[in-house]
Structure to design on (116 residues):
């Protein structure tokens, strides 16, 4: 069974940082691109960052320069380092398998709240 488990969210002040983790299982992790998405209240889910099987990276304009995606194939884990956080980054963050299309069931996500 394919499983994705997000963790690392929390409450931070504007300008703060968080590091999210997504632990994957049930497939050959190193062969797949992985992506981070987020969904804010009242908004559609949006793609924020993605990394391919060769560690090529791509970011949404809204997070470029602030967020960094990485992967550790020995741990079957993809990370999202989030710096200079803004209130508009508040959302539930999800990971999924794939570059352009999510290909497995969504996990529970992890809540990120940026507020004073």
């Amino acid at each position: 069974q394919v499983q994705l488990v997000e963790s690392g969210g929390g409450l931070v002040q504007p300008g703060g940082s968080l590091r999210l983790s997504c632990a994957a299982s049930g497939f050959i992790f190193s062969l797949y691109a992985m992506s981070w998405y987020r969904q804010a209240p009242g908004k559609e889910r949006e793609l924020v960052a993605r990394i391919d099987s060769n560690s090529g990276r791509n970011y949404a304009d809204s997070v470029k320069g602030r967020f960094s995606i990485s992967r550790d194939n020995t741990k079957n884990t993809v990370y999202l380092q989030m710096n200079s956080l803004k209130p508009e980054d508040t959302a539930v963050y999800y990971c999924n398998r794939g570059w352009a299309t999510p290909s497995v069931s969504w996990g529970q996500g992890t809540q990120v709240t940026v507020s004073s």
Q: What stands out?
A: The chain is about 0% helix and 45% strand. The radius of gyration is 13 Å.
